[in-house]
Hints:
This protein is of the alpha/beta class. It has one domain: NAD(P)-binding Rossmann-like Domain (Rossmann fold), CATH 3.40.50. The chain has helices at 12-23, 35-48, 64-77, 103-129, 150-170, 203-215, and strands at residues 3-6, 27-32, 54-58, 83-86, 133-137, 176-182, 224-227. It has a 7-stranded parallel beta sheet with strand order 3-2-1-4-5-6-7, with helices on both faces. The longest helix has 27 residues, at 103-129. This is NADP-dependent 3-hydroxy acid dehydrogenase YdfG. GO terms for molecular function: oxidoreductase activity.
Amino acid sequence: MMNAVxxxxxxxxGKAIAERLAREGFNVAICARQEAALQAxxxxxxxxxxxxxxxxxxxxxxxxxxxxxxxxxxxxxxxSVDILVNNAGIFIPGALNEEADGLLEQLMAVNVYSAYHxxxxxLPDMITKRNGHIFxxxxxxxxxxxxxxxxYSITKHALLGFSRNxxxxxxxxxxxxxxxxxxxxxxxxxxxxxxxxDRMMPPEDIATIVWTAFSLAKQTVxxxxxxxxxxxxx
Length: 234
């Protein structure tokens, strides 16, 4: 049985990916900050497939020590990691000259450093086994500057840079790296925004993209995937 790790998986895109991979027969390790939401997600993921193991850990992905502890828990639970999805992130819009002091540091810690530290912790085993597919959940804001993007946009540009550099470095080791950049997706990040649900993409579509990219031949990698609602950005 194969194993997957998805960060920030108590809701939205992360949860949809975890549920899809569980249905496909993967053991799944997830993490989130809020214990109640985490346990609810664990039950929902387990309900997709009673035969798989679901490891759910309460982790603040903005805290390096907690990220590294999560990595050790993963390594002690699973013999290998076949899929790593760096999905944890915070979306806080705001203009650079108006946003709160310290916001850039906070968003960098969660949106970028968490992926960096967790990936570095899990890579040695992947490299030894010459196996693994790493997905980094970027954003349309990784490719295009938007008014009111502020620190969030900066961190998403940085995450895409991390992902592309990792792709180059992992070529000799047979490890696939894919950057996925969704536009407006119907998740809690958009709570309070008044728009018909069909104006946004369902998170299950992102899960389908992850599964499709992983399912390709081992010698094939989709490097960058950009998705938007059919009517465009919101």
